[in-house]
Amino acid sequence: MESWRSLEHVLSMQGGDDDVSYVNNCYGPAAALALSKPMLTSAIRSIKLTRGSSSSSFFHLKIADLGCAIGDNTFSTIDTVVEVLRQKLAVDDDGSEPEFEVFFSDLPTNDFNTLFRSLDEKVMNGSIRKYFAAGVPGSFYKRLFPKGQLHVVVTMSALQWLSQIPEKVMEKGSKSWNKGRVWIEGAEKEVVEAYGEQSDKDLVEFLKCRKEEIVVGGVLFMLMGGRPSGSVSQIGDPDSSLKHPFTTLMDQAWQDLVDEVIKGFDRGGEKRWFQHSRVL
């Protein structure tokens, strides 16, 4: 696979904690998390784990947040999982306090420094340390953990990111070529189908990996965007740009960047092209 088609080493949420960081611009995912919290709580309560013969069996529980990014959304999700598990196990067993190990996982380009600095600041500001934490860089479309190790896996608003750009979309001679556009809003049927095929393939790989990693009776909770089956999509929608102005504006902004790169290349050659490419 050519490196420019793979998204694993280029995608990440904007790091740091300044005005343009993901930390300060993640209101949409926060709203989705709030709405899904009752479902997450119900899923964790349904977990089928019982204490085994060993005194530590299922009282050392391992939790993974796949596509964790950074910020309060990450900690809020894990805090919910840990608290519900603690209450459930205290009721189901003899009240012994379980220990939790949390794996924060995202692509290698994720800002893990900010993530763990924020976690440390929470403890310094008086929060009780509820779990032991570790970072696991890597794509969740591949195996990340040993077999049968995880009790709870959550992935919140992350599975919409594909593992790669569909090859057909990038081939100018193909009916699936998206004409250099960033979005598929208003695109041809073949373009939408190409992305749909890639999404199906990625989801199958994701589930295969988690099947290997999660213990029997464990829980996988996925929150992701989607459309109801049979709904009218962007295919053949003549006024799609009017219904979805955000995507149109983003396309225009991207085209402006591309035009600027081309102008820079014309004026300054390869060196200027490299500088602009790093910005993009």
Describe this structure in words.
The chain is an alpha/beta fold and 280 residues long. 42% of the residues lie in helices and 14% in strands. It has six helices and five strands. Strands 3-2-1-4-5 form a five-stranded parallel sheet. α1 runs parallel beside α2. The chain is globular and about 65 Å long. The two termini are 21 Å apart.
Task: Tell me briefly what this model is.
The chain is α/β, with parallel strands linked by helices.
Question: What percentage of amino acids are in beta strands?
Answer: 5-15%
Q: What is the global morphology?
A: globular
H/E element order: HEHEHEEHEHH
How far apart lie the N and C ends?
21 Å
Average pLDDT value?
76
Show unreliable segments.
53-57, 271-280
What's the topology here?
Blueprint: H1 27-45, E1 60-66, H2 72-92, E2 99-106, H3 112-124, E3 132-137, E4 150-156, H4 189-213, E5 214-223, H5 240-243, H6 245-279
Parallel strand pairs: 1-2, 1-4, 2-3, 4-5
Helix pairs in contact: 1-2
What descriptors fit this protein?
280 residues; alpha/beta; five-stranded parallel sheet; 6 helices; 5 strands
